[in-house]
Amino acid sequence: MVRIRFIQAINTALREEMQRDDKVILFGEDVEASIFGDTRGLIDTFGSRRVRNTPICENTLTGMAVGAAASGYRVVLHMMFANFIYTGFDGIANQMARMRLMSGGQVQLPLTVIASYGGGRSNAAQHSDTPFAPVMNLGGIHVAVPANPADAKGLLKSAIRCNDPVIFLEPGGRGGELGDVPDEEYLTPLGEAAVVRRGGDVTLIGMGSTMRTTLQAADMLAGDGIECEVVDCRSLAPLDEATLCAAAACTGRVIVVDESRDRCSAASHIAAVLADRAFGDLRAPIKRITVPDCSLPYAPASESHLLPDADKIVAAATTLVRAGEVT
Amino acid sequence: MKGNLSPDVSQCLKLLRTMLLIRNAEERLGADFRDGKLPGGVHLSIGQEAVAAGVCAHLDAGDQIASTHRGHGHFLAKGGDPRALFAEIYGKREGICRGMGGSMHVADFSRGIIGANGIVGAGLPIATGAALANQLDGDGQMTVCIFGDGASNQGVLMESLNIASLWQLPLLFVCEHNGFCQFSPAATVTAGTISDRAKPFGIPVEVVDGNDVRAVWRVMAWATDHIRSGQGPAFIEARTYRINNHFEREHLVVTTPYRSEEEVSEWRRDRDPIAQLQQWLRDKSLADDAALAAIADEAAAVVDDSAAFAAAGTVPHANEGAGFMFAGTYS
Description:
The structure holds 2 protein chains of 2 kinds. By secondary structure, chain A is α/β, with parallel strands linked by helices. Chain A folds into 2 domains: 2-181, Rossmann fold; 194-326, 3-Layer(aba) Sandwich (Rossmann fold). Chain A has helices at residues 6-20, 42-50, 58-70, 84-87, 89-96, 99-102, 132-136, 149-161, 210-223, 241-251, 266-277, 300-304, 310-326, and strands at 2-5, 24-29, 51-54, 74-81, 111-117, 142-144, 166-171, 178-181, 194-197, 202-206, 228-232, 235-237, 254-261, 287-291. In chain A, the strands form 3 sheets. In chain A, strands 3-2-4-5-7-6-12 form a 7-stranded mixed sheet, sandwiched between helices. A 5-stranded mixed sheet of chain A has the order 9-11-10-13-14, sandwiched between helices. A two-stranded antiparallel ribbon of chain A has the order 1-8. In chain A, helix 3 (58-70) packs parallel to helix 5, helix 9 (210-223) packs across helix 13 (310-326) and helix 10 (241-251) packs across helix 11. The longest helix of chain A is centred in the C-terminal third of the chain and has 17 residues, at 310-326. Chain A is globular. Chain B is of the alpha/beta class. Chain B has one domain (9-248, 255-310): Thiamin diphosphate (ThDP)-binding fold, Pyr/PP domains (Rossmann fold, 3-Layer(aba) Sandwich), CATH 3.40.50. Helices cover 42% and strands 9% of the residues of chain B. Chain B has helices at residues 9-34, 49-56, 72-77, 82-89, 123-137, 155-166, 186-189, 213-228, 261-270, 273-283, 289-311; strands at residues 64-66, 143-148, 171-177, 180-181, 184-185, 205-209, 234-239. A 5-stranded parallel sheet of chain B has the order 1-2-3-7-6, with helices on both faces. Chain B has a two-stranded antiparallel sheet with strand order 4-5. In chain B, a hairpin with a 2-residue loop joins strand 4 and strand 5 (184-185). In chain B, helix 2 (49-56) packs parallel to helix 8 (213-228) and helix 5 packs parallel to helix 6. Chain B is globular, with a radius of gyration of 19 Å. In chain B, 53% of the residues are buried. The chains are: A alpha/beta, B alpha/beta. At the A-B interface, helix 3, helix 5 and helix 6 of A face helix 5 and helix 6 of B.
């Protein structure tokens, strides 16, 4: 094991995959300067042919990714902030997600869209969104959401090797976070959730940015004698429904923690899946801890009030478990 | 006008064949639609065939074109299989896209036809990406993006012009200016001269009579030479006219006329690109009536065969779509 930062994990994944396959190209706004640090230095190794700064023109960048991928390249497009996915949405929603079916399976689109998502840093409402819902709903695109450096590296390597489009959403502001990463080559498969903690009282399901708060909450709850089964979705599309259902069955009480706005969130979809597939194993209604249907404000107190945090999870879990004890 | 080369007789006859194939195919598709034989609508390019034929005459199999919702002609001119085109539009499994795309999405990636597109202007970024691939490949191949005057008002035109010029991509912009953005005459929605939009980016432009196939061919000879010699992108504005409606039977939903019958008749009578080429061949004694009739019969026969092939095709299963969503493989 080696201990590296989130951005190093992403950078290493890009570096390894660009070394492995010279058809891998990377472009995006300021991938050279790399404000997050995840693409920094790649141009020095791979040159300006394969690593290209682009103008700011998201609608063209997403379409270009489709055109270059359809023409035989393995494209990594860095969109910087996830809100910019909205700006470039035609290339994603109407082209990338549709072209394979519309062509009757003629074309494959090996391309990965990277963006940093989520709030908590006073970046205000146009740089803080968690756009799981719009991209999960497209069909034709995989959605990967790493919660730690090991999965960031493993998921990104899988995404780049995948012959279908993948949107890779990295939790914003977490680039410096350290984690253990295997020394040897490995891949984290798309579509596989991970059970990261075992417990019999309540099941906590999180993804990406909410995993840190979810694990904090599990520690706090353990202090109160409540043991949590904790699952990291890792991919939202495809969603590992079997693992989620099994984890739900372990405790019969489920809380889904998601930084999306609540309406049509990843959490609400997961709750619907569990209600369909695991109803007989549930002992209580499924709870969602999400962002209310509100844009994220700039003022720190106003913003943090809306975001999922450990206290909210602890309160919800305690209520669920205590309610079970009364009955 | 730029371009010194002119098409020779055999090239002219080939252009005529291509245009007649497109005309016959689209007239049949229009009739099929009106007869209720097609599951969806069709946008026909009748009157605009010289652009497709003249442009694609200069492209090799490995060159790529991105096309529009009015893209049957581009598909056929680039070498797409007429049988597979008809079967697609009939919604059959034998279609080029297995019946999954239909009229607005005809594509044959094996022939560099990287897709008609139902989103106006969306071909521009895709073609820019394809041209980036051509540049990285470094094998002299190029991409042509054919888009309409309607698409010229999308912001992606400016974005694509900027990147194409900045990176000197082997990309040809062909604005097939047919005078109408759906139901709006161009003058009511488009300011200035479209090709002027490329000039500030340092991209050389040429405006051509899009109903004169020999002129289109000539300008294309210049443009492809410019691009293949590594001098970066070029821009052609081909001015033509959409004889048919935006889509067939549009009068059912569009009740206010947006152009006069006289205007349409005039273009049909005096400016038909096929009749003009036939007349020129006759005037120059390069082809006689019998030879011209034989070419027309040949096109009609291909279309008869294609329509029969499509009619006899098989219907995709109800659940067939899901299998086309993902490749499901890894490199």
